[in-house]
Amino acid sequence: MAAPTREQVLDVLSHIQDPDLGRDVVSLGMIKDLDIAADGAVTFTFELTTPACPVRDRFKSQAQDLVGDIPGVTAVDVRMTANVRPAFMRPKPSEILPGVKQTIAVASGKGGVGKSTVAVNLAAALRKAGAEVGLLDADIYGPSVPAMIGSKAVPEQVNGLLQPVDAHGLKVMSFGLIYPGEQPTIYRGPMVGKAIEAMMVQVDWGASTIWSSTSRRAPATHRSRWRRRSRLPASRSCAHRRTSPPILRSRPCRCFAS
Question: Which segments of the chain does DSSP mark as H helices, in order?
């Protein structure tokens, strides 16, 4: 029996509908690298929009069954992959987080409710599903992500950019890794914003999905921290401050801890 044609294979695969997009997988461009051998063996790539697709297994079984029922087909090999598309209406990649295709923020108007725990677990689950994931800990006053990932590594600088710390396959950046120790952070609002922005634009995230764990602390806590440190000198010259990366120069000098 003659091998099936390309049109026959695509026709049966068009019966598979994406439940979220409401269109068939062929018109959505999810079927790639279709190859039909002379002996009737059919191979193709089924490219999903996310590695964490909840209907991944169903798509694969449907594709195998539909193509396998075509007369002349002797074998079906389906390669499941994922290509995360950039978010709709997001800024141009060159403006912020170049190379990052998706950003997801975990936030709350209250502290101590488990934002960091949720962010770490979501990031780990998505990494286990096959995605490249970066975890940005945006908690400046009390970063807990370093303890959760079990790492005290200090980020290295390469070509003017800080390299995220690798932890369990995740690319992690936290103020707790840049500024370790028990000393309180004395940043005010504008300085906190600049520190978070620096961890976004001065870090080599690569092609990652960023899970941002943020913190919301009471303003009174910020003021009390600032008052406790207000007697420190406004500036001091030291060698490590002059030679540190920009993100490290934006924080209080370590010499203040004495």
Answer: 6-13, 56-68, 115-128, 145-149, 175-178, 189-201, 219-229, 239-243, 246-249
Rounded Cα distance between 181 and 225, Å, is 16
DSSP SS3 for 144: coil
DSSP state of 114: S
Whether residue 207 contacts residue 99, with contact meaning beta carbons closer than 8 Å, is answered with yes
Q: Which amino acid is at 7?
A: E
- Round the average pLDDT of the chain to a whole number and report it: 76
Does residue 98 carry a pLDDT above 50? yes
Instruction: Pick the most confident of 77-86, 90-99, 233-242.
Output: 77-86
Residue position matching structure tokens 């000098």: 253
Which pLDDT value is given to residue 243? 45
**CATH fold of 102-252:** Rossmann fold (3.40.50)
Tokens representing 228 are: 């406790």
Residue range 224-230: average pLDDT? 37
User: Alpha-carbon distance 111 to 142, whole Å?
Assistant: 10
Q: Which long-range contacts (CB under 8 A, 24 or more apart) does 96-103 make?
A: 96/200, 96/201, 97/200, 97/201, 97/205, 97/210, 99/205, 99/206, 99/207, 99/208, 100/134, 100/205, 100/207, 100/208, 100/209, 100/210, 101/207, 101/209, 102/209, 102/210, 103/209, 103/210, 103/212
- Write down the pLDDT at residue 54: 84
Give the start-to-end residue ranges of the domains of the chain.
6-82, 102-252
Among 95-99, 108-112, 167-171, 197-201, top mean pLDDT goes to 167-171
Assigned architecture for domain 6-82: 2-Layer Sandwich (3.30)
Q: What is the pLDDT of residue 99?
A: 72
